[in-house]
């Protein structure tokens, strides 16, 4: 198992309903490159996105049953990260030393979260949650955080959690919204948003519009910083 500071806290990398059974997708958290995949047992795994053979990205691979196969030479890894099959040597039992570096993975609050093996606890959001969307923002995470804190979703209470790395909006009408940031690099951030409670088209649309306002505001902060224009602290976005 790997441990890096970049995933020392639980970090969202996508929505639960965005990762179907037997699918794999790439997720980046700064220099940490992950292959996040779901087997036919429904379980989500987060692995280093590097095949132990020749370093091909495992996110280009494919899932069969509860195994992930590398696209390049077909080395196949079981759900525990161990190499189970080397097609060029079908009679060989792969050495137990051939393993993919693994991270922790969990699903909670409608989102998929990853963390290093040393991270304690698990994200835990009671109640029933639905993902609203994942939105790409062309700004560093700190600019997105500034935009969120300057313009929280509706009136209500905004709680900033450190692990999982997320904002929890406690709305006045009793519902909650998770807004989780995935820092891809110094210029890009993914924001994953989920809502608690029953389906409401009106509420979904309001949350969706808010995510787009946050994106505009964060990208504006970056543009202003680049052009040395002053940005009013606490300005509504
Ligand atoms: S690089 Fe993955 S099987 Fe060869």
UniProtKB/TrEMBL annotation:
What name does UniProt use for this protein? 3-ketosteroid-9-alpha-hydroxylase oxygenase subunit
**Source gene?**
kshA_3
Any one GO MF term held by the record is: iron ion binding
Species of origin reads Afipia felis
InterPro entries in alphabetical order? ARHD_Rieske_2Fe_2S, Cholesterol_7-desaturase, Rieske_2Fe-2S, Rieske_2Fe-2S_sf
Q: Which residues form the Rieske domain?
A: 10-114
The entry's keywords: 2Fe-2S, Iron, Iron-sulfur, Metal-binding, Oxidoreductase
- EC number(s) of the enzyme? 1.17.1.-
At the top level, the lineage of the source is Bacteria
